[in-house]
Amino acid sequence: MFGVSVVELWPFLFDVLAACMVTIKTGLLPVCFHVGASSSLSTSLTCEQQLSTSTSPDRMVSLHPLLDNGITPGSDSFPGGTLKCLCPSSPVEITLTTNVAHNHACGCSKCWKPAGALFSIVGVVPRDELSVTANGDKLTIVDESAVIQRYACKECGTHLYGRIEKEHPFYGLDFVHAELSEEEGWQEPQFAAFVSSVIEQGFDPAKIGEVRARFRELGLETYDSLSPPLMDAIAAWTGRKNGKLPAAA
Ligand SMILES: N[C@@H](CCC(=O)N[C@@H](CS)C(=O)NCC(=O)O)C(=O)O
Ligand SMILES: [Zn+2]
């Protein structure tokens, strides 16, 4: 969803990234939490228990494995790496020659989530920093009518990358799930987007406050679309396109 050209937008993304990183708090609660009849968050269950019973949205909830036990900061100097689908043999592999930016939790129904997770973790890279390096013949586009053409493995269903082919504020950026890499140093999640969208997928609206509270405990702001810097980038692109703002230099 997310054309300013990449050349134009990419430095902006890094500025935003740097600003967001200072908001990440330390000393996070260890959790797998229970959203139940009580409004309190319980830490009494293990992650294994939580994941094994998380099929009902209003019982045990895993936001995402990379969030449930606290956020591990990434590395500013991380150069990128390889992401693989979950097939036990002949996995599809993509290679990124840079770290992700705007990495965030997304609650929308379209982004790929690992089993049991309520949210996806998704970030962006310039499209020319991504290449398919193995078993690309297993890729298929999930929904050709979507703005983001999400390329998934036909066998295991994992989304490898999402690409925008039409005129769009985020044309030139590909969407990826860095958790599909074994390397460490990927940018940590910066915010939570499309939070209310989990309700469309069956999550109890009465419990959404607890989800937002948990994100805040983790130091992540929650939004029901994207973060203000990204919404501002979209609006500026639209303003330039409709002539209300001067064209980019
Ligand atoms: N409430 C909707 C929101 C979908 C949505 O707008 N997703 C955003 C965040 S990934 C987007 O950019 N969609 C464009 C697309 O999926 O092609 C849902 O959950 O399906
Ligand atoms: Zn999404």
Written account of the structure:
It is a single chain. The protein is of the alpha+beta class and 249 residues long. The protein has a domain at 6-24 and 105-241: glutathione-dependent formaldehyde- activating enzyme (gfa) (Alpha-Beta Complex). 22% of the residues lie in helices and 22% in strands. The protein is built from 6 helices and 13 strands. The chain has helices spanning 6-21, 47-52, 65-68, 197-200, 208-217, 228-241, and strands spanning 33-34, 60-61, 81-84, 93-96, 101-106, 120-126, 130-134, 139-141, 148-153, 159-164, 173-176, 191-193, 221-222. The protein has an 8-stranded mixed β-sheet with strand order 8-9-10-11-6-5-12-13. It has a 3-stranded antiparallel β-sheet with strand order 3-4-7, with no helix packed on it. A hairpin with an 8-residue loop joins strand 3 and strand 4. The radius of gyration is 18 Å and the shape is globular. Pathway: One-carbon metabolism; formaldehyde degradation; formate from formaldehyde (glutathione route): step 1/3. Its EC number is 4.4.1.22.
